[in-house]
Amino acid sequence: MSSDIAEKAKIASQTEIEINAAREGYRPVASRSSMLFFMLNNLFRVHKLYLFSLAAFVIVFERAIDGTTVDPSNIDERLAGLIENITFVIWDFTRRGMFEKHKLTVVTQLNFLIMQATGTLDNDEHRFLLLAPSAPNAPMVPDNIASWMTEAMWGSIHALKQVAAFTELVDDIVRAAKPWKLWVEDDKAEKQPLPQKWNDKTGLQKLCIIRCLRPDRITNALEDYVRDSRGERYVVEPAFDMAKVFDESSPANPIFCLLFPGVNPYSDVEAVGQSKGYTETGGNLRRISMGQGQEPIAEKVIDDYSKPESEGGRGGWVYLDNVHLMSKWLPVLERKLEIVAENGHPDCRVICSAEPHPDPMCQWVPQGILENSVKVVNMPPSALQANLRRAYAQFSQADIDACSKSREMKTMLFSLCYFHACVVGRHKFGSQGWSRKYGFNFGDLTISGKVLVNYLNNNDFVPWDDIKYLQVEVMYGGHITDPWDRRVAIAYLTEYMKPDVLTGLEFQPGFKCPGPEEDYDYYKNYIEEDFPIETPVLFGLHPNAEIGFLISDGKDLFNTILDLGGGSGAEGAGGEDPAKGILDDLETRLPENFNMFELRDKVVDETPYVSVVLQECARMNILLTEMRRSMAELQLGLAGSLNMSDPMETLLSCMRLNRVAPNWEKNAYPSKKDLSNWFEDMLQRVAQLKAWGENLETPISVWITALFNPMAYITAILQTTARANDLPLDQMDTWTDFLEQTEASQMTAYPETGMYIHGFFMEGARWDGKKQVLAESVPKELHPAMPIMQVRGLVHGSYSEDGIYKCPIYTTSMRGPTYVFAGTIKTSDKINKWVLAGVCLLMNDD
Asked: How far is CA 239 from CA 76, 96, 223, 233, in A?
């Protein structure tokens, strides 16, 4: 064996050893391949994968050609092992610097890309899983499955029927309704075998069925799919270990930690430093909280700790806290880190921490710092029990002893902590939890705790209202910008902070406040030992709320994967882009614009209702014109008559992905529907406007959700009432009542006062038509349709709101910016029950 071949064999062997060694958290420093690993650590993670793979393949390939050191029968096995180890090392590095919500998305896409590279991915099934199209013109749901099969599920399986492996799916479900019903209604359907022959399908095919029939379980099913395909280690992440992070760092690779409320990376740095001999008392560990005037201090400490050994330097660790506060100084830090990387002391380490930018499309840290850093994201847990544990840990027995009313202090402090845990954890339920995102933190909690102590000490009685006002309106309310979200926060503290806490108030079923006779340690143990299984009910929400946010998470996951894929689609029959067929179909069915001259000629008396229909037709014309123009332009581009512009490419990509194009959305109404359903919805909106515009006679019941500006119609009702009764418009309030009728065709005459409208769905509850009050939701029924609504205008103060829930009405489930007006709904339960449940009306079932 030549010395050159022997050296290559040695390097290849050492390469595999070090790949495995990297997984265990250490790195040898000898040999050429160790130097390769060191260089790789300074590159983008994705570049490391390419360079590392190339080095390993070159070494093994050359050995195979010589035929002197490798058994040819083991080459494939050896290559597969190298590829697998390299893949996992890169993934392990990558996920440590990712948000929790992104990890499943990335590992799922990684799995699909590997399957695609190995030829084991069926493109049609993969595309269906990502897009989850629905057949807009599916037939009526058969009677034998209508009780558990929703229209959305029925439309999805009809679309899936077009994929080769699922041609018999619909017929099998209809024929064998009972086993399919049992599977669909199982709480963990993804863990159960599919009925009949469908359990013998591949993992990807099962995912397609789950996406159609149980979209709320798709994220759990994807975890299982990745686990089966790639192994447990790709899904289960070991506990965070800061010591491993330091083993991978160097003067050229600083550590960059992202900050989250309740997580303090410095405590981990301090613990590692203690074990390695770096402490603040020893003078070789320094923490600098960045702020005005700290820049020169930080620069001097970096210079001192990075001074080379030849100049008498002894190294050290510097922790720069909250560097995002010094955005103008960060380019200086970037240059400092470059100097440290070139000739810094081997024992110099720079650790930075910063909060993530609130806008995911922006950043306030220079790219050079992020590229070279070892990124660390150690996010706090989102579980309610964990949040309550961490909230109560912010206080101690000394805080209780500082209060002269210890009995009240114990229970009220525990109530405050449970309130904090709820408002923080409620975010995970999406818009049904909070309409907008809020940065509640431990500062709000600890200051509220001090308010509690001060008011209990300075009063002979317990000033419940004053304490609650300061805590929820001032401390926590300072974050809240949406009035309906503020109502939720007030409802929480109203239910939890009241005299009943002294006698064992039950916060939620199965969890109550311990007695005032218990000590601090008892409360801590109570959280650990007696906390019930977490469900949305502990937040005051209906169990359906969990289904809603799981479906939303699944949609976001697949949308992200589609965005990463760039929207490229497979070719259709004859090599034609499938988007061309969609374009031709939409262009053919696009309605003509309204003739505004003819409409205005029909106007005899321009009442508020006539003004509404004229405005709506004009708005619809703008949308139709833009759709017609952009589709005609794209047709010319595909034919080669025009150069493809960015907007044309975007429209083409959206048609491939079944999405509404941005330039259409900008001129349209808020909607979360996919393109096929959005277009059908648009055609129905045009149909209502055409019927309304025939003789400008207002429909007996208006499909208000079909209007661009539904609030204009509500205002028209108030204006008409005010004019008829000679009342001031600014003193008119909206009052709503639900009727027994559910179809607009059932209404044959206008109401005596106000007008009828329809098209609403309820989220968080349902309408009991028999008792004519709000009622608990039916399990798995997320958005039940509502009956006809009568809208009237009443003078402010002329009515009683007892037993009335003020219900916000939104255009879509996005809530927040899509708010339209508030309805009045009768209830026999406490108002706060529906407030905490996030009950609202939606104008569109997404």
From this structure: 34, 11, 18, 12
* Strand 761-763, strand 819-826: pairing: unpaired
Pairwise CA distance, residues 530 & 74, whole Å:
56
* Rounded Cα–Cα distance for residues 250 and 205 (Å): 46
| Nearest C-alpha neighbor of 194 from the set 392, 203, 657 | 203
Ordered by start, the domain boundaries in the chain are 3-95, 242-376, 385-539, 577-698, 701-846
C-beta of residue 527 within 8 angstroms of C-beta of residue 390:
no
Phi, psi angles (nearest 5°) of residue 630: -70, -35
Strand 374-376 relative to strand 255-258, pairing? parallel
For residue 699 the two structure tokens come to: 């429909």
pLDDT over 90 percentage in the chain: 61
Q: What is the DSSP string of 276-303?
A: HT--TTTTSEEEEE--TT-HHHHHHHHH
Q: At what angle do helices 578-589 and 608-639 cross, to 10 degrees?
A: 140
The candidate with the shortest Cα–Cα distance to 422, out of 524, 357, 494, 528, is: 494
Place of tokens 């790195």: 27
The backbone region for 686, taken as left when phi is positive above 0, alpha when psi lies in -120 to 50, beta otherwise, is alpha
As a whole number of angstroms, the distance between CA 246 and CA 723 comes to: 75
Q: Is residue 22 within 8 Å of residue 34, measured between CB atoms?
A: no
**String of DSSP letters for 697-741:** PPPSEEEGGGSS-HHHHHHHHHHHHHHHHT--GGGEEEEEEE-S-
Tokens of 250: 């160097």
Lowest pLDDT segment from 9-18, 194-203, 532-541: 9-18
- The pLDDT value recorded for residue 73 is 63
**577 versus 679: which is more confidently predicted?**
679
The torsion of the CA quartet 739, 743, 749, 755, rounded to 10 degrees, works out to 60
| Residue 177 near residue 145 (C-beta atoms within 8 A) | yes
The CA dihedral of 116, 121, 123, 126, to the nearest 10 degrees, is: -110
Long-range contacts of 434-437 (CB under 8 A, 24+ apart): 434/482, 434/485, 434/488, 435/482, 435/484, 435/485, 435/815, 435/816, 435/819, 436/481, 436/482, 436/485, 436/816, 437/358
Gap between the Cα atoms of 424 and 263, Å rounded = 14
Q: Does the domain at residues 577-698 carry the CATH identifier 1.20.1270?
A: yes
Q: Is the pLDDT of residue 41 over 70?
A: no
Chain-centroid distance of CA 322 in Å reads 25
Mean pLDDT (the chain, rounded): 86
Mean pLDDT of 419-425: 93
Query: What CATH number belongs to 242-376?
Result: 3.40.50.300
Residue 428 structure tokens: 């995970």
DSSP-derived secondary structure for 366-410: -HHHHHHSEEE--PPP--HHHHHHHHHTT--HHHHHTSS-HHHHH
Q: How far apart are the first and last CA of the chain?
A: 69
CATH of 385-539, one of 1.10.10.10, 3.10.270.10, 3.30.1490.190, 1.10.8.720: 1.10.8.720
What's the pLDDT band for 26 if we cut at 50, 70, 90? very low
Q: Does 242-376 match 577-698 in CATH topology?
A: no
Side chain identity at residue 367, one-letter code: Q
- 617/597 Cα distance (integer angstroms): 11
Superfamily name and number for 701-846: Dynein motor C sequence, barrel region (3.10.490.20)
pLDDT digits (tens, 9 = 90+) for 447-502: 999 999 999 999 999 999 999 999 999 999 999 999 999 999 999 999 999 999 99
Q: Give residue-wise pLDDT tens across range 692-746.
A: 999 899 999 999 999 999 999 999 999 999 999 889 888 899 999 999 999 999 9
What's at 466, amino acid-wise? D
